[in-house]
Amino acid sequence: MTIATGPGTGAISRNPVLDHYHRLPDIVSACAQERAGRPDPEAFRPDFDFPPLDARMREFLAPAALSWRPLPDLDGRRMRLLDLTGNPGTRTTKTLASLLIVARAVAHVRRTGVPVVLVTPTSANKGTALRDAVLRALDLGLAEPHQLRVVTVCPAVCRDKLRRSRLATDPELRALNPVLVHTGQQAEDVKPLTRAFVHAHAAEWARRTGGRLWFSLDLANYMVADTTRALFEHDVDPIPPGEVRVHAHAVSSAFGLLGYHTGREILEATGEAAGGPRPESFLVQHLHIPDMVLSQRFGSFDRRNAPAYEWDERAELYRQDREPCFPYVTDTPNEILDPTFYTHRPGTSERMNEIIGKFGGGGIVVSRRECLEHYEAIARDLSEAGIPLPDDPQRLAEWSLLMAMTGVREGVRRGLIGPDRTIVVHASGTYAHGEYEPLREGDYQWVHDEADVAAAVGVA
What we know:
This protein is an alpha/beta fold. It contains 15 helices and 18 strands.
């Protein structure tokens, strides 16, 4: 059933996970063929089984609702927003995958009686969403606190984005579900650190507790949920013959777009998508890590392909005018716009390049200067769509949506997005300081190395 989500916005909302729950086995099968690299064959991974869709499961999955929102046209191009931020507990797209990951853990616990501890590195949003989903499962009685737990390892630079909930304020739940903040210099170090911890201690954990440690950062785990973006689009606004769409997304590894294209493959295989051609893909990144745009543009992650910037002393900024896929102005050539985007040389890049090569699209890197230049116009357009941005952009804690909207505006301005397109912007995340309660110092533990993680989890 469709639901109008705001007066005058023309938004349509549905829950594609509930709508297509019966298709999950087929979706899982399709996603299994799209993995970027193979996970450790010795690692624990529960089966892709999900609990029956009873009343409690429906309530558990309720935050997976998406919205399709019209935006004002941009230079003659029709604009639409695929809003993935509807869960107030996360305000990001990571809700969908986290709910299905936790549902799998619940199914495993019910079937085997074996407790599961989810273990994940995070730059904030994945961890927040997993903690939100675990707490939701506990509150609904889908599992007991000792049966379903989550351990998150976050870079220090991202800790202010972590949210406080009962997993932090309740002493028992805080001990069972620790948040670990890594002291390392490189944000991405949390990935090998967390993987190494699970690899080294999973067997001992199983022997001592009877439970399992699940390193849940696997592409397939996220793609299963992200396929529903395509199914949702087809349900609410199927692509008519002759229309060319461009899907724009602020990306770190582009899990969301890979999932979307797998969803399109499912629709095409069943004959349901008989309208327009497969949409193009438009990647948006920031200067600190522009690896996917570099790879798509030049076929290499080599940073030497990025343009050289020159200091403009009078304007007090850096400039370049040779490469349209990179910012023309920036405060620094290695600017960190949002630390959430932290993945170097993603294994997904080659597959994304193949998709863009076959179906069209491109990418762009944006700077803070460009985001602020467009901020007032973007805020006005999003407000009309029912998604407010803070009056002061310095309050913005999650820049994903602003990055994507800026990338689209600059892409149109520079001819990187063709004419006569319908542009679909994936609203993968947006929230501001003051809209949520961040974790406090006593809610998390500092860790330096694998031994610290083991001690914090209780396996040392």
